[in-house]
Design a protein that fits this description.
heterodimer, A: alpha/beta, 7-stranded mixed beta sheet, 10 helices, 10 strands, about 35% helix, B: mainly alpha, MetI-like fold, 2 domains, about 80% helix, elongated
Chain lengths: ~280, ~240
């Protein structure tokens, strides 16, 4: 598979305001958001019973450019998943403005994809039928669905397993089916909640590589939530460090694309940046 | 399989020895041969089939009614949290009630006949089906529900593509249990008062102390229960073909 994405940004550690000032026009385009896949402006979220001094999100402002790979990093309770839930329209913020692909989150759903730590496959559907699910919801015809799902499974290396049931697949293969199910809808914005965390180390790296290669052929923006700083550095164009519902820091990642993750992870440049960020997170 | 046949042969052998050496009261411990003869007599006299059909008919009608009403009610409750919150305490109380005790009440309401048998069996089975259907929907993976919502699925699509299929194994488990409960309810009702049915035969022969005939009827009931369960097993395997072996 040809990897066509290239890094479009300069390296460096910066504060939240730096990024917003430096937002470039969309290279891939294709959304209605004027080069911005989503924007959160002054978003606050509190859950019933939580202290007013400790909201889940506290006046968060964040933008994601078209085609950008944004990674949200932070400890449990820092607000990462809450941001995803706001973006997907599962959660209404108490305050602030949310714009997804130029509109409201719910209106943007047909152009959004979602992946979880668990593959969330339906056990009674074959791999192909699981991939077809998103297209069924979009009302596509049977023939079109079958063709698209089979083609997408081939792209993620599962052409031989289209008719297998989830229990007949390994954990890594199941996650790739979930990946195919997400990509087959050709989303413009992909929200991922620790999608690789349930995999063993080797399968995780393979899945990350497959994901990057599949993403490279699209113009989609990605928002990935993870606890894993190494994973964040390997995948991101930009890291957003969260703490107690606030953005602590935004960091542009300097590594060129396409990335060979196995080589990148052992490079001196990678190690230095990882160490620097660990210091920042302490 | 060989071990199972051996176990059955061993049981019949022990039973035969107990009867031959009069272990226990002779009126209670009848020999396997006596029971076999009673069974042959029931078949030869033409008594067995009408009574068997009557019991089977009531069992299947009660199960079918409980399946339709119970599945619809269970799914409806699971899809409506407010309704579920209101109804659950009453459902639990009714489920805890010894429904067999309602047998005489149903006979007074519906008279001696098919209806009262079906009513008692239905009252026993319906709660199992409701609770299993409801539990089946609640077993849906919240991540998949969330995924479908984010994909823009309508409530109808979430139900037809996820919640109903995910509930099928639990519904089927309830129906399999319900099958045996239905037979139990019908036989109980027949023993209380009925014109025909295997339960009525048991009551009649017990009253005459003809326990070889009672055991013969019980053996027929065991065969019916086992056959119905085996048929349900085949249907379940076909319906849930996708489950891991």
């Amino acid at each position: 598979m040809t990897v066509v994405k290239s890094n479009r940004r300069q390296a460096g550690l910066g504060h939240p305001s730096d990024d917003q000032a430096a937002t470039p026009p969309a290279p891939g385009g294709g959304t209605d958001g004027g080069g911005v896949a989503f924007s959160l402006e002054g978003v606050s979220v509190s859950f019933p019973g939580s202290s007013a001094n400790h909201p889940a999100l506290d006046d968060v402002s964040l933008r994601c450019r078209d085609g950008e790979f944004l990674v949200l990093v932070g400890r449990s309770g820092s607000g990462k998943t809450t941001i995803l839930n706001v973006l997907s329209g599962l959660l209404e913020p108490d305050a602030g403005e949310v714009s997804i692909l130029g509109g409201r989150p719910r209106a943007a759903r047909p152009r959004m994809g979602f992946m979880f730590a668990r593959d969330a496959l339906m056990p009674w559907r074959t791999a192909r039928r699981n991939v077809e699910l998103g297209l069924e919801i979009l009302g596509r015809s049977g023939g079109e669905r079958r063709e698209a799902a089979t083609s997408m499974l081939e792209r993620v290396g599962l052409g031989h397993a289209v008719n297998r049931l989830p229990w007949q697949l390994s954990q890594g293969m199941r996650q790739r089916v979930a990946l195919a199910r997400t990509w087959v809808r050709q989303p413009k914005l992909l929200l991922m909640d620790e999608p690789f965390s349930a995999l063993d180390a080797q399968t995780r790296r393979e899945s990350q590589q497959v994901f990057l290669e599949t993403w490279a052929g699209t113009s989609a923006s990605v928002v990935l939530v993870t606890h894993d700083l190494t994973e964040a550095l390997l995948l991101a164009d930009r890291l957003v460090l969260l703490s107690a519902g606030r953005i602590l820091r935004e960091v542009e990642i300097p590594f060129e694309r396409p990335r060979d993750l196995d080589q990148l992870v052992v490079s001196q440049e990678f190690r230095d940046l990882e160490r620097e960020l660990w210091e920042l997170l302490r | 399989m060989a071990a199972q046949v051996l176990l059955f042969a061993g049981f019949i052998g022990l039973w035969g020895l107990a009867a031959r050496f009069e272990i226990g009261r002779p009126i209670v411990v009848r020999s396997p041969a006596a029971v076999w003869n009673a069974l042959r007599d029931l078949v030869a006299s033409g008594q067995l089939w009408p009574h068997t059909w009557s019991t089977l008919q009531a069992t299947l009608i009660a199960l079918a009614l409980a399946a339709v009403i119970g599945v619809a009610t269970g799914l409806g409750l699971a899809l409506s949290p407010t309704l579920e919150r209101i109804v659950t305490p009453y459902l639990s109380a009714l489920n805890a009630a010894p429904r067999i005790a309602f047998g005489p009440v149903f006979i007074i309401i519906f008279g001696i006949g098919l209806s009262s048998k079906v009513a008692l069996a239905f009252s026993v089975v319906i709660f199992v089906v409701i609770l299993n259907a409801r539990a089946g929907v609640h077993a849906a993976d919240p991540d998949v529900v969330r995924l479908m919502e984010v994909m823009g699925a309508s409530r109808r699509a979430v139900f037809t593509k996820l919640l109903f299929p995910v509930a099928i194994p639990s519904i089927f488990a309830g129906l399999r249990l319900g099958l045996i409960y239905s037979l139990l309810g019908v036989v109980t009702s027949e023993m209380i008062a009925a014109r025909e049915g295997l339960g009525q035969l048991v009551a009649q022969y017990s009253g005459n102390f003809q326990l070889d005939y009672v055991y013969a009827v019980i053996a027929v009931l065991i065969v019916i229960g086992t056959l119905l369960n085996a048929i349900a097993g085949v249907v379940e395997r076909r319906l849930l073909w996708w489950k891991a072996p």
